[in-house]
Amino acid sequence: MRKAVNRTRPDIGADDKPDRPPAAAVSVAGLRKRYGVTEAVCGVSFEVEAGRIFGLLGPNGAGKTTTLECILGLRQPDGGSIQINGLDLRTHATQVKLLVGAQLQAATLQDKITPRQALDLFGSFYPRSFASDELLGRFDLEANADFPFATLSGGQRHRLFLALALINRPTLLVLDEPTAGLDPQARRKLRTLIREMRAEGRTVLLSTHDLEEAGQLCDQIAIMDGGRIIVAAPPAELISRAQAPARVIVRTVPPLASAVVDSLPDVVGAVYGNCGWILDTPAPNRLLADLVRRADEAGAELLDVELHRPSLEDVFIELTGHPWSGGGEPGGVS
Fold first, then answer.
1. φ and ψ at 311, to 5 degrees?
2. Domains of the chain
3. Which among 164, 73, 173, 84 is positioned nearest to 126, based on CA atoms?
4. Distance (Å, rounded) from C-alpha 66 to C-alpha 164?
5. Mean per-residue pLDDT for 148-157?
């Protein structure tokens, strides 16, 4: 008699390969949102891989906040679809809410509630949550755990809101301008905490108009302008596409003569100032090699050499045709 074979596999382990690749943590297709005559989000589409930090980068008024609010279910889109871990937001809203934690720009709490009370309260809303003491320790809030919210500093409030976003053990964190208004020390602290979220395998979707923050923090950036996504790619790839020349600043004693600089083959612009020669070049490696040789031939001692590659600001200007601005745009919707 042939022995029956049980083909069900309830104990599939981590090493077993699924038949299909896992769904993207976030999938947005053709998203649209209008406020009166203003179309704040115009057919936005993008995907966020699980366990990555994905940034929506753009000036105020680009449509970043509206996009995030639609993903969180706080605003009803006029068109398009949104999926979180393969679940359609329209038909699985309750399930999706258990997977997502959020920190919004306009977040606030009642003046007298303490961080401990807030964490205990928010944790009670979910079937699974972190213990408040665990998050108070992790986000460096133990010393202020029982102080009223009104007495907390800006950095402490931001850390508390990030702790509240994590209370339900989400797989996806949505953060709207998470470091806006913070001093440099608090900003660095919060960026470290966000990286820790990624290290744990959580996905982070954030908006920012801070170019430096986007370049340092995000694995992938989508540049938004006028309610549209212009391009999406890793920061280094975006910068590598820039047409703007690199800039080399060189200071020697004695200063290099104009004739020497004019003879350099890879210079497209040269200006002499207090910091030395400022040279624009499409080939910085070759230029640096030539500079060392020419300085040696001229008997000049190299004191300082700086290399500045194109930036995300250069990329934005090239792609949109207008300068970067952190301020609001007329008629824009953040």
1. -115, 175
2. 26-99+170-240 (3.40.50.300), 246-309 (3.30.70)
3. 164
4. 21
5. 94
Q: Which residue has the tokens 């004693």?
A: 253
Secondary structure of residue 62 in the 3-state scheme = coil
Confirm if 40 and 66 have CB atoms less than 8 A apart: yes
pTM greater than 0.70:
yes
Q: What angle do CA 294, 262, 312 make, to 5 degrees?
A: 90
- pLDDT, residue 15, reads 45
DSSP E strands, the chain: 26-35, 38-48, 53-57, 79-84, 87-88, 100-103, 172-176, 203-208, 220-225, 228-233, 246-253, 269-273, 276-281, 301-308
Q: Is 34 exposed, middle or buried (0-12, 13-18, 19+ CB in 10 A)?
A: middle
What confidence score (pLDDT) does residue 22 get? 62
User: What are 246's two structure tokens?
Assistant: 């690199």
**DSSP 8-state symbol, 18:** P
Q: What percent of the chain shows pLDDT beyond 70?
A: 91
Tens of pLDDT, residue by residue over 17-35, are 444 456 789 999 999 999 9
> Across the chain, how many H-helices and E-strands are there?
11, 14
**Quick one: which of 158, 168, 239 has its CA closest to 206?**
158
Kind of pairing, strands 38-48 and 87-88? unpaired
* Residue 95, token pair as written in the block: 């399930």
Enter the tokens of residue 278.
Answer: 């400022």
Contacts of 134 (CB under 8 A, 6+ apart): none
CA distance 104 to 84: 18
